[in-house]
From TrEMBL, chain B:
Membrane-related topology note: Single-pass type II membrane protein
Subcellular location: Cell inner membrane
Function in brief: Exerts its effect at some terminal stage of cytochrome c oxidase synthesis, probably by being involved in the insertion of the copper B into subunit I.
Family listed: Belongs to the COX11/CtaG family.
UniProt-listed PANTHER family: CYTOCHROME C OXIDASE ASSEMBLY PROTEIN COX11, MITOCHONDRIAL-RELATED, CYTOCHROME C OXIDASE ASSEMBLY PROTEIN COX11-RELATED
Residues spanning the membrane: 12-32
UniProt organism field: Shewanella nanhaiensis
Protein name, as recorded: Cytochrome c oxidase assembly protein CtaG
Length: 540, 187
């Protein structure tokens, strides 16, 4: 077992030396592509995940550009409606499963062992595998776009019968790619749980864990609970379409509404999978730049756990208009609103942490503050959508699109960018260019609001989502939205520039470049040595 | 060594959890049907004929019953209710017809799936005879009167004053043929 090898290393390796930058000598390391193909090192795998996620972010972003270009004017000008539908579908799938989730797994790989004082993840070989099956999953998904009949065009939620009776021939490829993504996520989650439970340094008790570790532990349990349900759902779609079963086909005794119940039983916890690690990131960054300890640590842990439990009781708020009985609508409405309580606790704690702090606004803090404000806007529009009677008006309009982009782009993705800026000095050993980081922040935060805020008004005025054409009265606002979209897309190239520049050059970073930062990762030199904490650190 | 042991134990628990949840996803299918049936919430009417015993007809109350007929896009039939809406008293036995015409030049097999709205009313909508209990076969260009005999249970909650019965007709020529022959032989 790998962990025993590490135990053996503990005995022969000298005590870790702060100044020793050449800690990576004790194993002949393959070079070139083989280093990355065969690596079992958590830092390498974290890097692979993060780059993969960024490539997928740009791929999914390019699809969003196609969508916004088509919607720049009413009428059909650039793409066929069927291709437009493939763009909305694959944009959603790539951003959810290719950009946000692998980015969090990458951060988990890089950070969790360093934060808990472990030498590596608990299951390094499975770690390699859970990353390397991902490019295949997305190659399969993307290749289906070039096949006869086109790729998936039924929305990322693949409602039956759109995905069964009416779907293109390539649907089997969509199903298999989702299977592979699911396996990757489950393996990643198992690795995280085992690492956190069994690999903590002596003295790292549960209530001393950094919140990023806590939120990821809870996220991992959510992943293990719901990714198999997603796998089951796509399997039912597969057999309904190709093998004559009738899970979702009324003609054979099935029920298409049941698809929505099963899908959202996965889908709602999934949205918390994409936001809980963000909460952990923000809970690390806000105290560091406020130079105050986090306000209400234990309430943060309990709030995260409550959100995770409640996430299993709210799925039907996605389907208020399917003709549910009133008592069910009320139940799901109240449960949904209840989630605002633990989320409110978190926002309150972040604001209380900043209160009377000695705050400085470096790029990570700017993204963190923007996260708190803009994620809260997304939370409020979520509360509006939770109100059953008004949801009948908002359902399937651009209001919903505005809502989930506020929580996913200015929520999840902003937190990932905040994390990247915050830990880049630790990863690369160089400081990023603060000037360009700030330019990236300001262009992003302005354009993202030009992009998504007017969508609220489009939705309230009745513009439906997932359409390539629209009524002329929506033209002006759609042009503003598209301009915001192009600007936001271009701004992300600045991020790419800053990251590459930081890897190649830049001022050398100290072990702890942020004076208010807390945590074991900052006790390691920058860049973090290839093997760290081979001897467990002392925890006070 | 101890660490490897406890890793193994935890991993097998987590994998068992994941496999269990995969199974749970499929268990949701029968669970959904049972829950819907027990709570009477998704508008599915009974798929077997109910028997009508002489009961007091509640003349003081009138319920509007509406009929809708839809066809799935690949079904080459015309399918319409004889009456679009009628006023009935709870307890009264009513007969009405739907008309089906096969517009194609091939023999086609259809299955009608009923659904009642509001969903809670489904349990009170009783059919003693319905074409939806069987598959329907029409030869090329043929037409048929499809009978429906039903009564509304007098226990129908006061809050429901209109019941809409909607049929969707599915083309099952490809998959239902063998069953249909067996069904015909049994009859």
């Amino acid at each position: 077992m790998t962990s025993t090898t590490h135990d053996a290393q503990d005995n022969i390796e000298p005590e870790h030396n702060q100044a020793d930058h050449h800690d990576d000598h004790h194993e002949a390391m393959p070079t070139g592509i083989k280093r990355w193909l065969f690596t079992t090192n958590h830092k390498d795998i974290g890097t692979l995940y993060l780059w993969f996620s960024f490539i997928m972010f740009l791929t999914g972003g390019a699809m969003a550009m196609v969508i916004r270009a088509e919607l720049f004017q009413p009428g059909l000008q650039l793409v066929e409606p069927n291709f437009f539908n493939q763009m909305t579908t694959v944009h959603g799938l790539i951003m959810v499963f290719g950009a946000v989730m692998p980015a969090f797994t990458g951060l988990a790989n890089w950070l969790i062992p360093m934060m808990i004082g472990a030498p590596d993840m608990a299951l390094p070989r499975m770690n390699n595998w859970s990353f390397w099956i991902l490019p295949f999953a997305f190659a399969i998904l993307l290749s289906s776009l070039f096949m006869e009949g086109g790729g998936p065009n039924f929305g990322w939620t693949f409602y039956a019968p759109l995905s069964t009776t009416y779907s293109p021939d390539s649907t089997a490829l969509f199903v298999f790619s989702v299977h592979i993504m699911g396996m990757s996520s489950i393996m990643g989650a198992i690795n995280v749980v085992v690492t956190i439970v069994n690999m903590r340094a002596p003295g790292m008790t549960w209530m001393k864990l950094p919140l990023f570790v806590w939120t990821w532990l809870i996220t991992a349990f959510l992943l293990i609970a719901v990714m198999p349900v997603l796998a089951g759902t796509v399997t039912m779609v597969l057999t309904d379409k190709y093998f004559g079963t009738s899970f979702f086909d009324a003609a054979g005794g099935g029920d298409p509404v049941m698809f929505q119940h099963i899908f959202w039983f996965f889908g709602h916890p999934e949205v918390y999978i994409m936001i809980l690690p963000s909460f952990g990131i923000i809970s690390a960054i806000v105290p560091a730049f406020s130079r105050k300890p986090l306000f209400g640590y234990s309430s943060m842990v309990y709030a995260t756990a409550s959100i995770a439990i409640l996430s299993f009781l709210v799925w039907a708020h996605h389907m208020f208009t399917t003709g549910m009985p009133v008592f069910a609508e009320l139940f799901f409405m109240y449960c949904t609103m209840l989630i605002a309580v633990p989320t409110g606790v978190k926002v309150f704690n972040w604001v209380a942490t900043m209160w009377r702090g000695s705050i400085s606004f470096e790029t990570p803090m700017l993204f963190a503050v923007a996260f708190i404000i803009l994620f809260t806007i997304g939370g409020f529009s979520g509360l509006m959508l939770a109100i059953t009677p008004v949801d009948f008006q908002y359902h399937d309009t651009y209001f919903v699109v505005a809502h989930f982009h506020y929580v996913l782009v200015t929520g999840a993705i902003f937190s990932i960018m905040a994390a990247a800026y915050y830990w880049l000095p630790k990863w690369t050993g160089n400081m990023y260019d603060e000037k360009w980081g700030k330019i990236h922040f300001w262009t992003s935060v302005i354009s993202v609001n030009v992009l998504f805020f007017p969508m609220h008004f489009l939705g309230l005025a009745g513009m439906p989502r997932r359409i390539p054409d629209y009524a002329v009265q929506f033209a002006d606002v759609n042009q503003i939205v598209s301009i915001g979209g192009f600007a936001f897309g271009l701004s992300q190239l600045i991020f790419l520039y800053v990251v590459i520049k930081c890897i190649r050059s830049g001022e050398k970073a100290e072990a702890k470049p942020w004076d208010g930062a807390e945590g074991l990762e900052w006790t390691l030199p920058s860049p973090a040595p290839y093997h760290s904490f081979s001897t467990p650190p002392e925890i006070k | 060594m101890e660490k490897a042991e406890s890793n193994k134990k935890l991993i097998s628990m987590l994998i068992a959890g994941a496999i269990g949840m995969f199974g749970f996803g499929f268990a949701l299918v029968p669970l959904y049907d049972v829950l819907c049936e027990q709570l009477g919430i998704n508008g599915k009417t009974s798929s077997t004929a109910s028997s009508y015993q002489a009961m007091t007809i509640d003349k003081s109350r009138t319920v509007t019953v509406e009929f809708m007929a839809q066809i799935q896009s690949d079904m080459p039939w015309e399918f319409t209710p004889e009456m679009k809406r009628m006023q009935v008293h709870p307890g009264e036995l009513i007969r009405t017809n739907f008309k089906a015409i096969n517009l194609s030049t091939e023999e086609t097999l259809g299955q009608a799936i009923p659904s009642v709205s509001p969903g809670q009313g489904a349990a009170y909508f009783n059919k003693t005879e319905c074409f939806c209990f069987n598959q329907q076969r029409l030869t090329a260009k043929a037409s048929a009167e499809l009978p429906l005999i039903f009564f509304v249970d007098p226990d129908l909650p006061e809050s429901i004053s209109t019941l809409t019965l909607s049929y969707t007709l599915y083309n099952i020529t490809d998959r239902g043929y063998v069953d249909a022959i067996e069904q015909g032989a049994a009859r």
